[in-house]
Please model this.
Amino acid sequence: DIQMTQSPSTLSASVGDRVTITCRASQNLIRWLAWYQQKPGEAPKLLMYKASYLESGVPSRFTGSGSGTEFTLTISSLQPDDFATYYCQQYANYPWTFGQGTKVEVK
Amino acid sequence: QITLKESGPTLVKPTETLTLTCTFSGFSLSTGGVGVGWIRQPPGKALEWLALIYGNDDKRYSPSLKNRLTITKDTSKNQVALTMTNMDPADTATYFCAHPAGTTGYYAYWGQGTLVTVSS
Model:
């Protein structure tokens, strides 16, 4: 299985901050990586796919980058609605696997 | 509009078999590259990928759970079922069904999830 490691596990930030989350893979994913946002009691919501492609309807303050084994999700200016947990997911090889999550909390 | 909804028991006893059903609309599972999968999330923990079935009946499983999982589809009913045997309290989780966008591997569409508790 491809192991996905996110850092940090928890991130304390304020509205307006620039936030970056990192996802590292144990094997080369090329660019087959997605990012999700999940709020308590809700299903995950797709933010990005193929590392840097923004899902329709997702605000442009979210950007994804990276290739191979290292990827980042950046929120350029954190908004109140962005406090949530974020997951990366690889779909380069079966079994598809998720990172352990990064919780973005209020500082 | 694509929708998915999970159904099944909310409480099962240890050693019992769990069967969950995902009923979907807005797409057909009769095309080879189209799939529906199951993902679970124990309370307060991360997402865990479980299984996936494609329209051509190709099936993929998590290796760690493969011996306990069976995924099937009923194209006429627009349903996908997941069976998990020998349930354990550690299997307590919210179980989501989800649909990858097109023939890709990222999940653009999710059900609301169903919480399954394993307890005697």
In short: The mean pLDDT of chain B is 96. Residues 2 and 26 of chain B are 4 Å apart (CA to CA). The interface with chain A takes residues 37, 39, 46-49, 52, 60-64, 96, 98, 100-101, 104-108, 110-113 of chain B (CB under 8 Å). The first strand of chain B starts at residue 3 and ends at 7.
